[in-house]
## 1
Amino acid sequence: MQFLCKEYQDGNPRVRGLVTDTRIHLVPSLNPDGYELAREAGSELGNWALGHWTEEGFDLFENFPDLASALWAAEERRLVPHQFPNHHIPIPEHYLAEDAAVAVETRAVVAWMDKNPFVLGANLQGGEKLVSFPFDTARPSPPTPAAAPRPSDYEDEQPELQETPDHAVFRWLAISYASAHLTMTETFRGGCHTQDMTDAMGIVQGAKWHPRAGSMNDFSYLHTNCLELSIYLGCDKFPHESELQQEWENNKESLLTFMEQVHRGIKGVVTDQQGEPIANATIVVGGINHNIKTASGGDYWRILNPGEYRVSARAEGYNPSVKTCHVLYDIGATQCNFVLSRSNWKRIREIMAMNGNRPIRLVVPGRPMTPRERLRLRQRL
């Protein structure tokens, strides 16, 4: 925070551009009670693990709604996407109950995410030096038929990995941080405490490393427009004061580069033919089975890797609009606006409902109507 303010006042063009063109939200501590407990206990003998839990005893790493498991269960029942959405999945009612086992911190973060149309997010942690991206949840393995050969012991130990539809985008975002870090990709000595799980790249899918259900990253991806990652800044949970300056230098460029990635992909506004914004319109990118929605002002942002995309905008009561959008390698989102025309389907559905949702028989010109058909037509009119 001090760096951004000072560099902005000193006229740093990069920081000025970032602060001017980006709404940056900074949360100093997601779990202040847990941090206080861990700080008092110290980092020796694993006491830092106390920081996972809130004062009420909830582990914030696994306290968000497990929407990934709900999505996969719906997929197995072939309910997606007609009866169960693959994006903006609603929070289960039992999770919203007053007596639900949900921390006040978690409820506050969920409300905060619902209020703001976030595009890119990162939760910063310590104890390792890598970037973790969704899915964090390991998909349950399908039941093995009795006649199928038994998998090897090695395969038994591996979790069932399910990649997100935005797997390539998540890898790009993770690499943008890890590659700019001064030491994150120097994994030839192994990881901080165990073997290197990142294939010498400094990035890993969460379910491959530490599988957990109900993570903030998975919830953010499946409930909002936001792409959220976990960034582990360094091996020590509680660096000594004398080490803080070097830790800042290790991560400074990475933090700036990561925030700049929010301006990669496409952006635009969805309006009707009178120029009025359309909120909650759905933006569909061909080849990526995960949609986003427009904000209250009809605006949207969609992080994408460089390439050519077939993009469509859809909204209830409007005809969809489709166009081709190009994403370049340089930072700066491509403008892709949509103008939707009113659809007659709303009026057709009303007429169908009046007819008991039965098909309306086509009247062929020149053929006389039967008395029964004439009576039905009078009733409808």
Note: The chain has two domains: 31-140+163-262, 266-345.
## 2
Amino acid sequence: VDLDTARQELEEFIPHVKNISDSSVRKMAGRDLMRFKEFKKQGIAVKFGRFTQKENKQIRKNVEEFLELTGIDSAEKLLFTSRYPKDKYIIHRLKTEHQFWEKISEGIPRPWRLIYYRARKMFDPNNYKGRYTAEEKEQLKKYQALYGNDWKKISELMSRSNLSVAMKFSEIKSAINYGPWTEEETQKLMSAVKDVIRRKLITEDPSSLSSLEQSDRDLWIDREQLYQPLPWTEIETKVGSRYWRQCKQKWNSILTRKLTRGQKLYRGTNGLRTKITLIKRLYETKAEDASDVNWDEISNAIGDVPRAYVQTKFYRLKVSFVPLWKRRTFSEIIDYLYEKTLPDLEEKL
């Protein structure tokens, strides 16, 4: 399939394919297009977002079966081959001969690349290694001074994952303010968010530049744009005095206030109604995992609030009302909230 045709055919399954590089489109045409068409015949849509427990189990099964098929003795060797230079050639040959890309993505309606990254996260022994010691933090600062933001190299030196070392350095690189946000900090945050969204809009549609420059007022941004993942470490740098997670939380709180026009959704009868509506809507979805929930739809039902507000509300509900919630599945948590918590909330209201 030629590049233009591949892009057109993939657009049915991945609407943002026009923003994907030519080389990535070629890979997707080879690895994903036929799979997507097969899933379509079965009435299964291509998915994005968080992986479900069922998908994680399927990935684990696919990896274990591939190891058994090829005789490769560990998932780390299979997924982090560069860590084993002596075995590199034979592992690559086995992966090619036995069509690794096809086997690992079997039964999962997602782009191959996302499945591969998820598998790497699941099987990386350098993940989930607990808190950083004082010695590790000092080590991290020294390595960053030597190698800059080459997180792959630093992760190998520290036996931590790439994401872990990058985020930890972001957290410790400067003194962080944990007090209330000042007006100046809030303005810096809003300006930084506006800048990155403006840049994204212009990159996707250069013709929008003139219309953006015509107005001195706050940039009007489509609601959907506000929910896109933002480069929080870049925004953190622009704010200067806050850790990236603080910036994300503060932005979500600003967004909630702006979109709800100051309605007091958090307290009193409004707060109770919000909890009741949320539990009912989640129960009606019959979802088996949080990633199956259309959070935008639920946020609209509650009062045109950001999805982050709804997800935070759900987290607080399960922590506050569901005993041993960490041991329960998503659907078990929803059932408990519906059967046990909802009647009490309705009576209280």
Note: Confidence is low (pLDDT under 50) at residues 208-224.
